[in-house]
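FORM 12-B: Structure-to-Sequence Request
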């Protein structure tokens, strides 16, 4: 595991390529990416095997559309110290609210910038909750 001044993160997405690209970008931004996974079971196994600070959970995983929401609940139940961030394909206030109700500490959409993702990860790792007011409209 990396030094504790580094934020450790597991990335999940339905697309292995997108997952790897996000992971590579986060590594270049000096995050400790411990794993890139594409299913809910792999995500849960990853956070249980090697504890992380943050889990970036795509709403859609290879398990199916919105499988990230059930993964979110499982992570919160079985690895409560992990701070989840949910990534949505598009802005949807009902999904944003559902993500927070499910235990997300932040919600982002894919239309937001990579620098916003990095800022969000840092904020969430420090215990803050993050959402764009526009995402709730």
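FORM 12-B RESPONSE
SEQUENCE OUT:
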């Amino acid at each position: 595991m990396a030094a504790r001044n580094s934020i450790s993160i597991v990335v999940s997405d339905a697309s292995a390529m997108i997952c790897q690209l996000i992971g590579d970008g986060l590594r270049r931004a000096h995050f400790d990416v411990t794993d890139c996974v594409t299913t809910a079971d792999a995500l849960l196994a990853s956070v249980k095997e090697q504890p992380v600070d943050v889990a970036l959970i795509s709403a859609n995983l290879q398990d199916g559309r919105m499988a990230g929401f059930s993964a979110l609940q499982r992570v919160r139940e079985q690895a409560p110290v992990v701070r989840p961030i949910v990534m949505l394909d598009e802005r949807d206030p009902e999904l944003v609210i559902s993500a927070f109700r499910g235990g997300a500490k932040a919600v982002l959409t894919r239309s937001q910038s990579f620098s916003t993702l990095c800022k969000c990860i840092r904020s969430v790792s420090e215990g803050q909750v993050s959402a764009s007011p526009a995402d709730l409209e």
